[in-house]
Design goal:
The complex is a heterodimer. By secondary structure, chain A is an all-alpha fold. Chain A is built from seven helices and no strands. The chains are: A mainly alpha, B alpha+beta. Chains A and B meet through helix 1, helix 4, helix 6 and helix 7 of A and helix 1, helix 2 and helix 3 of B.
């Protein structure tokens, strides 16, 4: 059991988001979408938390892709447009990896519409999405970067919660994937902070 | 399609004019793009290299369970190749590269298993949360059984390796790098790169997370160091780490494939100098975070040492960092280069043999994604060539990505490799996972190109459109289904052959074959370079013995590059043939006469520097002939 500590700077986002990362995914009634209580077979090398993490991260990624695909039509700057394209191209294959992992272990694999039902830590509320959709140009850049930093920070909290959960994060594919999420999204948060700092003052 | 078109528009408008040689990508006629799939019967495409042998994974690891049993990296010593696996390692006897023989298979759960060999000690990196002190299967039940750090095996008897020490580190070990002490041959330092958060103090004393790079009690923002006395490996221990990340909040510098500067924020961006950007405060405020916030890296994926130059090139997220390691216990950062426009996943570095250039690879997508598709962004997931000046300041030059579109079934991105010792040229062989193995020529820092490759089709067949594989179609227990991760983890030149560790299939051995791009003399000159030990992340300086094939390598290069008039290269070639027929003092005299004539060619030659080097090689051969 590797209980990893929060990256303190990001812990604040948990407060902003106000929900434990797994609460809404597993508290919700998902039967309608084919997602019942998670059952882990005896002798499996993974836990419920691993399954919940992979399922929840699909929804989390799917919303990031929706946000990223707004950039072009909303007059994002070339830098933000490029970053959004990178996030899009990076997270689509990651969703496939998560879905394949879940199917391989005979667990329910949410699709890319799951973000509408599952709200993990850092994900935007409907109101925030509307706000982002209403912004154009520099205002979009600012809203996008601020919200995507929060979104990424939520993913880091999800990883941290995963590793805190007894026995979770040990199955090799989950472990490698979760560590990759930390590496990539920590780095992108740095990039986004820098881009944000270059925007004209409000 | 719109995305692709826009990408091209973007590229067309923003390639920096100083870099004329931007790669056009990918080739639509490349034979690698259309290979038949199959684990052991995939289609093969090869150019200027041939497969000498393929050895399947030993049975102990031949189980497909996601990444649990994938092969990882290689290290080389005497006539053994040490091939790591997420579940242990294999020692191959490669006395005959055409027939590698398993010396031993050690089962020890250790993801990801980055290996190094020093004498009789094999070092293995452990990162995964399920790795145990006792190597056992079944995961960690009690935190005190958790192992993350570097394992040390005694492989004096390659048939029976013994675990002699587990050195725990705060962030575990994703990779590690051997740095020998410049003073004491009995001491080596293991530089440990860990990408995870620090372990709790209850699990390992002294480990602490933090966000301030300047806080010395913070386990993040440092390269961990283990000191090992080779005669007492069981006493290996962590010493204070290298805090090379402090003050790395520089603005991004983009040289190629750059998004154009946005006029709306040109004013805000102006005047950003070397001083810490005051805008960090604004960032912090926006993010509602108290205390210092770094936008730079807090760790590296890997670091490559060039001990004979006392240098280290570190691949750290958005940054390429050059470090002085002349005192390995006190590394000092010399320079940091960033391109946040394109890179967040700096992966591994390699120096050119003269130390004047650096390759930084970018592992976009972490190695498990298919990032070499025709629709993939070209500017991500490849190699950046970086020039190093006399003060070790870096400047970004050419960029190279596998010039072949791969399928959606093939996890593909730039991965590990090493230098091929051809005199007069800078060649890098590397693995691209299921993109195969290729050789990049980066002799010209502004123009990197491919001269050889070997590739197989995907392991899995192409997916049926919109039809998810039902769970019942997948082997029980989570076996081979879709999404098999495979291909070359790393490919390295070792004593005449190229060895590639295939994650899913086994071990490949290749040989370069003569072509217009690489002559028989150049291949023969490379084969003269023999090492007794090779850890790719601890780069050895290459020297060549005095030999006719070395001289002729330079001559072939002058012919190929039109660096010297054809009548002169023809005459020199004939004179060398004649000199080779002689022996002893007569040969030496003939060679010295040729050298004097070649001296006279330097001035008028298009590539005078290469002609001068060739003259020197002819004299060295003359001296060796006496």
């Amino acid at each position: 059991m590797l209980a990893q500590r929060p990256i303190l700077a990001f812990a604040v986002f948990t407060l902003l988001a106000g929900v434990p990362s797994f609460a809404s995914a597993q508290g919700h009634d998902m039967h309608g979408m084919g997602m019942g209580e998670i059952v882990v077979p005896k002798g499996a090398r993974y836990t419920k938390a691993d399954v919940g993490f992979m399922q929840g991260m699909i929804a989390h990624h799917a919303q990031a892709i929706v946000m990223s695909r707004m950039a072009e039509a909303h007059g994002a700057s070339p830098q933000v447009l490029k970053l959004s394209r990178k996030i899009d191209q990076s997270q689509v294959p990651e969703i496939i990896i998560m879905q394949q992992w879940l199917r391989r272990h005979q667990q329910f694999a949410p699709d890319t519409s799951s973000w509408r039902h599952m709200r993990m830590t850092g994900m935007l509320t409907d109101a925030q999405l509307k706000e982002l959709d209403a912004a154009k140009g520099v205002d979009f850049d600012r809203a996008f970067l601020t919200m995507m930093i929060e979104h990424h920070a939520g993913a880091l909290v999800m990883v941290e919660d995963l590793f805190k959960s007894p026995g979770a994060g040990q199955e090799v594919d989950v472990s490698v994937f979760a560590n990759d999420v930390v590496t990539v999204q920590t780095s992108e948060i740095g990039i986004m902070r820098r881009l944000l700092s270059q925007l004209p003052k409000k | 399609m719109r995305v692709v078109r826009n990408l091209f528009l973007l590229l067309a408008t923003c390639v920096a004019p100083t870099l004329a040689s931007a790669q056009t990508y990918p080739s639509k006629t490349d034979p690698r793009s259309t290979l038949k799939s199959g684990r052991f019967d995939a289609g093969v495409a090869a150019s200027n290299m041939r497969l000498v042998s393929f050895s399947k994974k030993p049975a102990q690891f031949d189980s497909a369970r996601g990444l649990t049993f994938v092969n990882s990296d290689l290290a080389f010593g005497t006539h053994y190749a040490y091939q790591a696996n997420f579940a242990g390692f294999t020692i191959w006897d490669i006395t005959d590269p055409a027939k590698p023989v398993v010396a031993s298979v050690v089962r020890c759960i250790t993801s990801q298993g980055d290996p190094s060999i020093v004498g009789n000690l094999l070092f293995i990196s452990a990162e995964g949360a399920g790795n145990r002190v006792d190597c056992g299967d079944g995961g960690v039940q009690d935190p005190k059984d958790h192992f993350a750090g570097v394992r040390i095996f005694d492989v004096t008897n390659p048939k029976a390796p013994k675990l002699v020490k587990n050195v725990q580190t705060c962030k575990g070990s994703h990779t590690h790098t051997v740095v020998p002490s410049p003073k004491d041959p009995n001491i080596v330092y293991i530089y440990v790169s860990g990408q995870q958060a620090a372990r709790p103090e209850t699990e390992l004393a002294g480990c602490r997370n933090g966000t301030d790079p300047a806080d010395p009690t913070n386990s993040m923002y440092q390269l961990d160091i283990i000191k090992v006395a080779l005669d007492q490996p069981e006493r290996a221990a962590v010493i204070p780490g290298a805090r090379i990340f402090t003050g790395l909040d520089g603005g991004g510098e983009c040289k190629q494939f750059c998004a154009p500067v946005d006029p709306r924020r040109a004013a805000a961006g102006r005047g950003r100098g070397g001083a810490p950007a005051p805008s960090n405060a604004a960032v912090a405020a926006t993010a509602a975070v108290e205390g210092p916030v770094s936008t730079g890296p807090r760790n590296c994926h890997d670091v490559t040492a060039y001990p004979s130059l006392g240098l280290l090139a570190a691949s750290c997220s958005t940054h390429s960092i050059v470090v002085d390691i002349s005192n390995p216990e006190k590394p000092v950062r010399l320079d940091a280069l960033t391109d946040t426009n394109n890179f967040q996943g700096r992966h591994t570095a390699a120096f050119s043999n003269d130390g004047k250039k650096l390759i930084q690879t970018d592992e976009w997508g972490g190695g498990t994604g298919p990032m070499c598709q025709a629709s993939s962004m070209i500017e991500l997931g490849g190699n950046t060539i970086i020039a190093l000046d006399a003060k070790k300041k870096q400047s970004q030059k050419a960029y190279f990505k596998l010039p072949s579109a791969q399928s959606a079934e093939e996890n593909c991105v730039s991965h590990n490799g090493g230098i091929i010792p051809v005199p007069g040229r800078d060649l890098y062989v590397q693995g691209w996972y299921q993109g195969g193995v290729d050789v990049m020529d980066f002799t010209d820092e502004n123009n990197a190109f491919e001269i050889a490759y070997f590739d197989r089709g995907s392991i899995d067949p192409p997916a049926a459109v919109d039809v998810p594989i039902p769970p019942s179609a997948v082997e029980a227990g989570g076996g081979r289904g879709r999404g098999t991760i495979g291909g070359s983890w790393g490919a390295y030149y070792w004593n005449g052959y190229i060895y590639s560790s295939e994650l899913d299939r086994g071990l490949d051995v290749y040989e370069l074959t003569p072509s217009a791009q690489l002559s028989a003399n150049e291949i023969a000159a490379a084969k003269l370079v023999v090492f007794t030990q090779y850890n790719p992340q601890s780069q050895p300086r290459i020297t060549w013995p005095a030999a006719f094939v070395v001289v002729r390598s330079y001559l072939d290069q002058l012919v190929r590059g039109n660096g010297l008039a054809p009548d002169r290269t023809g005459a020199i070639s004939a004179a060398l043939d004649a000199a080779e027929m002689k022996s002893g003092a007569a040969r030496a005299a003939a060679l010295n006469a040729i050298a004097r004539q070649v001296d006279g060619d330097v001035k008028s030659a298009r590539d005078g520097a290469r002609v001068r080097t060739m003259a020197g090689e002819i004299r060295r051969l003359a001296a060796a002939s006496k």
